[in-house]
Amino acid sequence: MEIRFASRHRRRWLAATAACLLGMPLLASAEVSFHYDLPAISPETASGYTEKPGWETQRFAVAAANPLATDAGYQVLQAGGSAIDAAIAVQMVLTLVEPQSSGIGGGAFLMHYDGSTVR
User: Fold this and answer.
1) What is the mean pLDDT of residues 8-23?
2) 16 CB contacts (<8 Å, ≥6 apart)?
3) Residue 6 structural domain
4) Cβ neighbours of residue 76 under 8 Å, at least 6 residues apart?
5) How high is the mean pLDDT of the chain?
6) Is position 83 within any domain?
7) Distance of CA 72 to CAs 22, 85, 96, Å?
8) How many structural domains does the chain have?
9) What average pLDDT score do residues 84-113 get?
10) What single-letter DSSP state applies at residue 42?
11) Would you place residue 47 in the very low, low, confident or very high pLDDT band (cuts 50, 70, 90)?
12) Which of 4, 23, 31, 98 is the most exposed place for a label (fewest CB within 10 A)?
């Protein structure tokens, strides 16, 4: 009785396995098409280019993506800090006001010119 049960169980298992193995290629080759009825959306129009006046500086300049960060870097340089100090201040403020774009995992670009050692 136990042998007959094991044999019947094994045949069912083999039949189910064969059905799965033969059915998988059929399911994989089935073509599915989706029909979306979304309204046609035109792309956003360009915001345009506006000419802006240039800037000149005699001592230092700070540029950042946010005016608060620019002001923080400017204040550090005005107080006598180095360019690295200003860059750290700018990045700290950017981490607060734009955490999705800046910080440890974000982008921080730096250009440093040391006029006293470069001739």
Assistant:
1) 85
2) none
3) 1-29
4) 85, 86, 89
5) 80
6) yes
7) 67, 10, 12
8) 2
9) 79
10) P
11) confident
12) 31
Token reading at 40: 């046609």
18 in a structural domain: yes
38 pLDDT band (50/70/90 cuts)? low
Within a domain: residue 52? no
How far is it, in rounded angstroms, from Cα 86 to Cα 92? 10
Helical H runs in 1-114? 2-29, 67-78, 83-97
Q: How far apart are CA 99 and CA 102, in angstroms?
A: 5
Q: Which two tokens stand for residue 13?
A: 């298992």
Q: What does R_g of the chain's alpha carbons equal in angstroms?
A: 33
Of 12-26, 31-45, 70-84, 87-101, the least confident: 31-45
Q: Supply the pTM of this predicted model.
A: 0.45
Query: Is a pLDDT exceeding 70 seen at residue 32?
Result: no
Spatial CA neighbour of 108 closest among 69, 72, 78, 68:
69
Residues 6+ apart with CB under 8 A from 43: none
pLDDT at 45: 77
Q: What are the Cα distances from residue 81, in Å, to 91, 103, 107?
A: 15, 21, 23
